[in-house]
Amino acid sequence: MAAVVLAAARLLRGSGPWGRPRRRFAPPARRRFSSAGACPGVPLSSPLPGVPTPVFATVGGQEEFETKVTALDNGLRVASQNKFGQFCTVGILINSGSRYEAKHLSGIAHFLEKLAFSSTARFDSKDEILLALERHGGICDCQTSRDTTMYAVSADSKGLDTVVGLLADVVLHPRLTGEELERARMAVQFELEDLNMRPDPEPLLTEMIHEAAYRENTVGLHRFCPPENLAKISREVLHAYLRNYYTPDRMVLAGVGVDHAQLVDCARRYLLGAQPAWGATEAVDVDRSVAQYTGGIVQLERDMSNVSLGPTPIPELTHVMLGLESCSFLEEDFIPFAVLNMMMGGGGSFSAGGPGKGMFSRLYLNVLNRHHWMYNATSYHHSYEDTGLLCIHASADPRQVRDMVEILTKEFILMGGSVDVVELERAKTQLMSMLMMNLESRPVIFEDVGRQVLATHSRKLPHELCALIRGVKPEDIKRVASQMLRGKPAVAALGDLTHLPPYEHIQAALSSRDGRLPRTYRLFR
After folding, report:
1. Domain range holding 497?
2. Which tens digit of pLDDT belongs to each residue from 75-103?
3. 479, 120 contact by CB (below 8 A)
4. Using alpha carbons only, what angle is made at residue 279 by residues 276 and 281, rounded to the nearest 5 degrees?
């Protein structure tokens, strides 16, 4: 009892266990430079009294961000976009590619991609070109698609004259020696072997779905060189193609992070009146055919059980890509189709807007989240100057291919149904987020400027595209989806196709109300 009374007395008088007085903590010292005492209760949204009004840096208006375009006398267009920084990206985009090879050997554009930045009239080898770029901290690249060939260089802005001169030489004066053709032939052959062996079948399926959708015309022609044409492509064959499609009126010199007047001066110096290595400057036989959507099926039976790389085995899967015709990027419905693609789960929706946002897409909620046996369900939207293709790629065990195809047809039918306002707003926000994040990169801005000017002679700025995206309404999505569902489907299938439904059944499912495949009854299995 005495001990309890003693302890209570110590606590009351603030002493320690041995009778020493406890230290009392003094109030924290107030910092002299803090304004909390002088301006108590001032909200952060109001300026502090006595503090001078801040002055922010301003630009000369929206015109500072507009893309400038100048047409030269020979038809070549020069486009530039202002961007702060020491480095620039400059390149030549040409309206050429595999879609224009109907009257030529298939695979020429693929060969030209591998031959880019080789020896020219001024440079004896590719090493000399790379050394010239290295003096300005530059790198180079060439990419060929179905409708565009792009030669690009990123380097210090001070070396603009050197870069444009080098690009003009690479595009108009390639030597195309026998040794370079052999190296390109080996590179193309290796890429073809890799295409058929890689675990990711998406590039091969993309080729197959285009072949099915546009049978033997324009964008349905092979983007990769067929093996039987490897030995047939020669210097004369390449010159015959270049004479038709590497003409000034089909070219755009685009630059980002450069002065427009300086870029135009360089273009006049190196690209105006230049005589190309193949002689004639006027096109002789240009293919101006418009894409004809045919629909159909392309299937490739293949053993997919041995595609594993490394110690972790990959399960044997069958891959199916189902597509319908959408619209070209020149039509007004292109924006609603882009929003629809994002709403379904395409266009990088699983990363746009922050981690996990793609988990709200339809293919995730309605397909992957409900059918655990499906390994993949992704939407893709391919758009060109005269047509477009919206497709879904799915993967599953070969024994469940029929169920997988029926799930895809049901999702296509649901596109033409009601659209929830919340999911639409989420898809539009994701699309704008992806657009703005991609346009933070200088090479992406360069490609956007070049492709838009090449197709339309002008460029829509990001804020204009965002305004169009915000204006998409639920009825727009329903309208474009219903119009798309009236067409014939395109189907590409790869793997064990024992249980793949007939094409007629897939077409009937997409014409029905619920997207179900016709029932098949068998007495004996």
Report:
1. 296-306+314-511
2. 999 999 999 899 999 999 999 999 999 99
3. no
4. 75
- Three-state DSSP state, 133: helix
* Beta-strand relationship, 490-495 and 296-301: parallel
- The residues, any chain, with a CB within 8 Å of residue 238's CB and separated by 6 or more, are 108, 111, 112, 115, 176
CA distance 100 to 149: 12
How far is Cα 225 from Cα 238, in angstroms, rounded to an integer?
Answer: 13
| Strand duo 490-495 + 318-325: pairing | antiparallel
Residue type, 435: L
pTM, 2 dp = 0.85
Q: What is the distance between the alpha carbons of residues 276 and 274, in angstroms, rounded to a whole number?
A: 6
**DSSP letter string over 347-411?**
SSTTTTTSTTGGGGSHIIIIIITT-TTEEEEEEEEEE-SS-EEEEEEEEE-GGGHHHHHHHHHHH
CA atoms within 13 A on the CB side of 243: 12
Sheet holding 149-156, edge to edge: 68-71, 77-81, 251-256, 87-94, 149-156, 139-144
The reply to whether 347 falls in a domain is: yes
Number of structural domains the chain divides into: 2
Rounded to whole angstroms, the Cα distance separating 96 from 221 reads 13
Q: Are residues 428 and 472 in the same domain?
A: yes
Q: Tell me: the pLDDT tens digits for 132-173?
A: 999 999 999 999 999 999 999 999 999 999 999 999 999 999
Q: Are residues 452 and 390 in the same domain?
A: yes
Angle at 363 between CA 360 and CA 366, to 5 degrees: 85
Q: CB of 345 within 8 A of CB of 361? A: yes
